[in-house]
Amino acid sequence: MTAVATRPAPAPEDPKPAGWWTGKRIRIAAYALSIVFLLSITQQFAKLPTDDLTSSGTWAIALGWSVPILLAGLGGIYSERAGIVNIGLEGMLIIGTWCGAFGTLLWGPWWGILFAGVGGAIGGLILAVATVSYGVDHIVAGVAINLMAPGAARFLSDLLFPSRGGSITQSPTIVGVGSLNVPFLAGGRLFGWRSPDLLGTVEKWDVFFLSDFAGISRGLVSNMSWFTLVAYLIVPASIFLLWRTSFGLRLRSCGEHPVAADSLGVNVYKYKYYGVVISGFLAGLGGGFLSIQLSGLYKEGQTLGKGFIGLATMIFGNWRPVGTALGSLLFGFTETLRLRDPRAAHALLLLITLGLVVLIVRKFYQRQFRTAIYLIAAALLMAWWYLSTTSVPNQLPVVTPFIAVLIVLLFATTRLRMPAADGLQYRRGDT
Prior knowledge:
The chain is an all-alpha fold and about 425 residues long. The chain has helices spanning about 25-45, 55-80, 90-105, 110-135, 140-160, 200-205, 210-220, 225-245, 245-255, 260-265, 270-295, 305-315, 320-340, 340-365, 370-390, 395-410; strands at about 180, 190, 195, 225.
């Protein structure tokens, strides 16, 4: 029998490397510019005298308030990508606020930040033991963490703070880390030389959209805490760790199909522990930022539900770091409006109305007429509220993140994709 010669199959062509401006990045840039455009229009119609919606001062404060929400949201991503629902983020934030303040009193702000992360990680470890090792329901265990954390913080405060000039409800005043201005963009110093403030110059021109864009951009690069820079650098680090490393692949497989991961040799229990402990560590850092950098002291009840807002931000961002970062910045902005001129909070109604109009146009283009009718009703209600009042309750900016998440859940469910095994109990040997 003679062998038949066959032609070797051609080698597959190397795929063309994807450029920086992929379709997804273009959409993100378009969404960001659209938000700036809506803010500019709202600023013009609301006629706010101090440009509170687009000024660099507003967005510098918003950047700071976004950090605890961002870190809690990133913590939620690690936990839920491993298959564990972490309702206890609020409690881990509380632990982080106390540990951050106490660590700063003893060793200084940077050690205080690290101590805050360790405190949050301990809370995550407790949650992991309950949910992973003992199979306690994730929601029940998370609620238990949220209930125990304030009591533990109050006990430790009574034990340690009064002798140092504090009280049972708050610590002594502490000093945070320094801040920076980015050279050339916000007039920062470079080798002792003060560089030009290019964005500040454009902001003062008072040109529609251009000056607003410059003001918002300058707010994100001026008077920025070093801790803020570290927090936002965790976003690309998380993308690399979760989607570009074997560790991230194994962790995500535990949240998608733990049985299949176990069959391939992945220690599912160990990686679930990793996810929840990292989640607690990041939430603890967020609490430390709140007490060290934003407040300058630990005070009982200062988290104000930011752990839950972090969870909402995680859903808003579709369980991905970039979406979570954008959502945290948006929700930090609404928190800032609550602290500034009440007329700026009232203008939030107009901003929501314009955002709903954009969604209406999009739904008509997609021929989703029933959804568009619902949005028209909501837009008319918001417009009536804005035109018939001159102020809004102070609670509106607080509940805005949850309203935004409800809108996303109602009208963007096809784009949301949570991990398939998120919240499900797993026991080795299950099929």
